[in-house]
Design a protein that fits this description.
Elements (H helix, E strand, L loop, with lengths): L1 E4 L2 E4 L7 E5 L10 H4 L3 H5 L8 H12 L2 E5 L21 E2 L2 E2 L8 H28 L5 E8 L2 E2 L2 E2 L4 E4 L5 H7 L7 E3 L11 H10 L2 E8 L6 H22 L1
Parallel strand pairs: 3-4, 3-7, 7-12, 10-11
Antiparallel strand pairs: 1-2, 2-4, 5-6, 8-9, 10-12
């Protein structure tokens, strides 16, 4: 069963698994805005516009874990769904080494319009989804899926798989404790202190849900085959960790 809205989709809405999977940076689709944002075609394919490979992994995990998946269908350069409306990064004027001309000095009316069109419906739908599960007494954990670039400001990242958490570390540590064959670290290459755990802080922490943010180095998931292979690798680990954490 699936549902859709203008800028997000819900897949496997009645999934029987314990996880709800979120992919906020699933798409680099700028719709009618590429020219307005002042970006090149190359920039639209880069990490600044989305998390390459993340959606393929999220879909693979959704199928293997029978998990509901909610994911964005628009680029995070229009609105980064993992940032609150007052954050500069919600509609970033600069991302890594790239200026985003179309996001510079945005009028308040445009910031509000993007917030109402992208952020509010997405998070309302996620909250409703979680609330319905809890009302039915279903064990529920929230897992967000992201990817990160091998180079950051020219520095090579050796970590291959990062696991990040907000206030509750039980699921993150349960995943960390299991072998995946990947160079795995907790709260690396980012942590909640970097402002990257907004979705977890907004939904999982207030509801007392076990949660984890999965960060996968994007050179490891550059093709559909590699994305499915990564999902196959991680699914047993996540399944076992969910049993422990829940």
């Amino acid at each position: 069963m699936s549902g859709s809205a203008s800028f997000f989709q819900i897949e496997n809405a009645e999934g029987g698994g314990a996880a709800v999977i979120v992919c906020e940076h699933a798409s680099n689709d700028l719709g009618t805005m590429p020219g307005a944002l002042g970006l090149s075609a190359e920039q639209c394919l880069a990490h600044i516009a989305w998390d390459p490979g993340a959606l393929g992994v999220a879909k693979g995990l959704s199928a293997l874990l029978d998990a509901t998946l909610i994911h964005a269908t628009a680029s995070r350069l229009i609105y980064d769904l993992n940032r609150p409306p007052d954050a500069a990064g919600a509609m970033a004027a600069r991302s890594e080494l790239h200026d985003i001309p179309g996001n510079c000095d945005l009028p308040v009316a445009q910031r509000l319009a993007r917030t109402e069109t992208h952020y509010i419906p997405f998070h309302a739908a996620l909250f409703a989804l979680l609330s319905r599960r809890l009302a039915r007494g279903r064990p529920t954990a929230l897992i967000t899926v992201h990817s990160f670039s091998p180079l950051y400001f020219g520095v090579r990242r050796e970590v291959e798989f990062g696991i990040i958490h907000d206030a509750d570390d039980r699921l993150a540590r349960a995943i960390l404790a299991r072998r995946t064959g990947l160079v795995t670290r907790l709260n690396d290459p980012y942590s909640a202190a970097d402002g990257v755990a907004h979705t977890l802080a907004l939904h999982a922490t207030p509801l007392g849900l076990a949660h984890a943010m999965l960060e996968i180095r994007n050179d490891l998931i550059a093709t559909p085959r590699a994305q499915q292979a990564m999902a196959d690798r991680l699914a047993p680990t996540i399944r076992d960790a969910l049993r422990e954490a829940l």
